[in-house]
């Protein structure tokens, strides 16, 4: 219908604007989501047990990766890594979660619900990884080799967990509005950003690789669980 309430000439409705996808969003099936959550949770548990039984001592490949990174702390890579790693914490991930909710909602109430849910997922993820960091208390690499700021224990990496959660949430929000091809492109861009943030933690010498891998696994499990709960959290019809 047009703004005046009449059909356009010829009886054809206008095509959706560039990048907008007609029809409802197709979400992954319950089975694959349960499998993804279970696999990621199991792998994370295995990594956490390994850290615990070794009392935080790094594996040989982890030690080698940190040694390599400390030998390559020259400019401009160090400054670029510091700039990228700064986007993985603080205001940026929460701004991404808010944007995800604004994109996912179709009405004022729907946007409010979606923003609230997205922020809760991010906050729960941060609280969970902080509790696990304190519980496992894995020491970081030697501070003498650090090329960036860090605090607290090492496993799982807070930056890796938070950036992966934020990237997943924003990809979900974009998928509600964009055509599949555009959504896939943005998903790839966001995945590269989150991967880059995680890798900078190793490059800057403040995390072992296992810490970053643990953060990614934890975030993936939480995102899969969040998608499983989406129909219950946002079950009311949300019309434009």
The number of strands is: 0
Largest sheet: none
- Based on secondary structure, the structural category is mainly alpha
Shape annotation: globular
Radius of gyration: 21 Å
Could you name the ranges where pLDDT drops below 50 across 5 or more consecutive residues? 1-24
What is the count of DSSP helices, taking H or I runs of 4+ residues? 8
Order of helices and strands: HHHHHHHH
Mean of all residue-level pLDDT scores: 87
Q: Gap between N and C termini, in Å? A: 14 Å
Helical residues, percent: 55-70%
Strand % is under 5%
Textual characterization of the structure:
This protein is mainly alpha-helical. Helices cover about 65% and strands about 0% of the residues. It has helices at about 30-55, 60-70, 75-85, 90-105, 110-135, 160-175, 180-205, 210-235. The radius of gyration is 21 Å and the shape is globular. The relative contact order is 0.17. The model is unreliable at about 1-25 (pLDDT under 50).
Chain-wise SSE layout:
Elements: H1 30-53, H2 60-70, H3 77-86, H4 91-104, H5 108-136, H6 158-177, H7 180-203, H8 209-233
Helix pairs in contact: 1-8, 3-7, 4-5, 4-6, 5-6, 5-8, 6-7, 6-8, 7-8
Summary, kept brief:
With 240 residues, the protein is mostly helical.
Defining key terms:
disordered N terminus; 0% strand; single chain; 240 residues; mainly alpha
């Amino acid at each position: 219908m047009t703004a005046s309430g009449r059909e356009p000439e010829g009886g054809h409705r206008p095509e959706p604007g560039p990048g907008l996808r007609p029809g409802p969003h197709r979400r992954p099936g319950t089975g694959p989501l349960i499998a993804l959550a279970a696999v990621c949770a199991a792998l994370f548990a295995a990594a956490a047990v390994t850290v615990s039984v070794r009392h935080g001592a790094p594996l040989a490949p982890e030690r080698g990766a940190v040694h390599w990174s400390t030998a390559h702390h020259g400019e401009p890579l160090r400054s670029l890594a510091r700039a990228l790693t700064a986007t993985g914490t603080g205001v940026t991930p929460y701004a991404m979660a808010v944007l995800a909710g604004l994109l996912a909602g179709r009405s004022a109430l729907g946007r409010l619900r979606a923003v609230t849910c997205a922020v809760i997922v991010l906050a729960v993820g941060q609280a969970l990884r902080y509790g696990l960091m304190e519980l496992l208390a894995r020491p970081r690499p030697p501070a003498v080799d650090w090329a960036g700021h860090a605090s607290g224990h090492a496993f799982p990496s807070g930056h890796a967990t938070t950036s992966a959660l934020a990237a997943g949430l924003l990809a979900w929000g974009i998928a509600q509005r964009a055509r599949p091809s555009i959504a896939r492109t943005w998903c790839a861009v966001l995945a590269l950003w989150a991967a880059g943030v995680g890798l900078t933690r190793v490059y800057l010498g403040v995390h072992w690789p296992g810490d970053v891998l643990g953060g990614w696994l934890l975030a993936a499990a939480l995102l899969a669980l969040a998608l499983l709960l989406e129909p219950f959290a946002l079950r009311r019809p949300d019309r434009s």
